[in-house]
Amino acid sequence: MDVLSIGETMVVFSPNEVGPMRYAHSFTSHIAGAETNTLIGLEKLDIKTGWISQLGNDELGHKILSFVRGEGINVDAVQLIEDAPTGIFLKEKVRQDQTRVHYYRKGSAASLMTNSNIDKDYIAKFKYLYVTGITPALSESCKETTFHLISIAKQLNLKIIFDPNLRLKLWSEDEARETLLKMISLSDIVLPGISEGEFLFNEKSEEKIAQNIIEHGASTVVVKLGSKGAYYHNENYAGYATASKKIEVVDPVGAGDGFAAGFIAGYIDGLSIHEAVEQACNAGALVTTVKGDVEGLPSKEEIEKMKNTKITDDV
Ligand code: KDG
Predict the structure, then answer these.
(1) CA proximity to 3, closest of 156, 123, 151, 132
(2) Are 190 and 264 in contact (CB under 8 A)?
(3) Each residue of 51-81: pLDDT tens digit?
(4) Is 121 part of the annotated catalytic residue set?
(5) How many angstroms is it from 33 CA to the middle of ligand 1?
(6) Are 78 and 36 in contact (CB under 8 A)?
(7) pLDDT, tens digit, for every residue of 187-206?
């Protein structure tokens, strides 16, 4: 198998109407979790993946497990536990252009993961470990487990790919900065957003952010610049890539995870760094054209189609 990840996946409920949630009557549910979003994106691009996690042995836990398994991800390392619930969150569109997220995940099954969830023989089946800054923010034991997993993966020569995915609702700024910098120093490939780079290094320019990350030991950095595309820097090349076409954004959440999937798949398939970043931009853009974090993740054919369309303002 190719890419392994660890993290929490939840059911997200969103009111069907725009406005403060206290007045909402009906909700739509989706499955969401940064790591499985990326793994699902990878499966759609023919990369074989596995997921380490814990879910409650409850209705929502079974719903998530069936969904993730149905997308092709190996779930041999996912445990259903009795004494804690599956996490959920609510995504409220307060106004058309203002989204608020409310987590109900403290004490969730995933937040109770420990080093005992890590099985060396299972990790040895993979070539890459994809981690985000969300998992160590879930609890002290999840933080310890994340670093334990990274150290075993390094012993087994897996390449470490890291997306900071800063979530300041989950921890303090100081703890986040210290932990994310430590994760960067253990990673081969780092995929920050520009505002995460600014938070971590107090630098506004993508070149300086990438330089700082390279100095921490990574060999490849891709800084996401939103609708402007992304800046990349590795041992041989530095430059910019953008999506091939402008699209109409329906739901921006999940774009970064789609971007990671597009990039990692391109990297594994041996594309040039420029082509891999362009594929990442196209995948991230396509995610935003559909409601939900994973429903818009594209296949190879859809990415190819987008690539072959000239840049235009048409949607
Ligand atoms: O990356 C999109 C995520 O924000 C979403 O899927 C939920 O994992 C999530 C989180 O912790 O915010």
Answers:
(1) 123
(2) no
(3) 999 999 999 999 999 999 999 999 999 999 9
(4) no
(5) 5
(6) no
(7) 999 999 999 999 999 999 99
The C-alpha atoms of residue 238 and residue 241 are separated, in whole angstroms, by 10
How is the chain classified by DSSP, letter by letter? --EEEE---EEEEEESSSS-GGG---EEEEEE-HHHHHHHHHHHTT--EEEEEEEESSHHHHHHHHHHHHTT-B-TTEEEESSSPPPEEEEEEEETTEEEEEEE-TT-TGGG--GGG--HHHHTT-SEEEEESSGGGS-HHHHHHHHHHHHHHHHTTPEEEEE----TTTS-HHHHHHHHHHHHHT-SEE--BHHHHHHHHS---HHHHHHHHHHTT-SEEEEE-GGG-EEEE-SS-EEEE--SS----S--TTHHHHHHHHHHHHHHTT--HHHHHHHHHHHHHHHTTSSSSSTTPPPHHHHHHHHTSPP-S--
Tokens standing for residue 53: 């996690």
pTM as predicted: 0.95
Distance from Cα 284 to the centre of ligand 1, integer Å: 14
pLDDT, residue 315, reads 35
Tokens 């000239």 belong to which residue? 310
Q: Which atom of ligand 1 is nearest to the CA of 134?
A: 11
Can you tell me which atom of ligand 1 is nearest the CA of 89? Answer: 7
Ligand 1 pocket test, candidate residues 68, 134, 142, most atoms within 8 A of CB: 134
Between helix 34-44 and helix 59-70 the angle, nearest 10°, is 30
Q: Is 266 in the pocket of ligand 1 (CB under 6 A)?
A: no
Q: Of all protein residues, whose CA lies closest to atom 3 belonging to ligand 1?
A: 34
Which pLDDT band, with edges at 50, 70 and 90, does 311 fall under? low
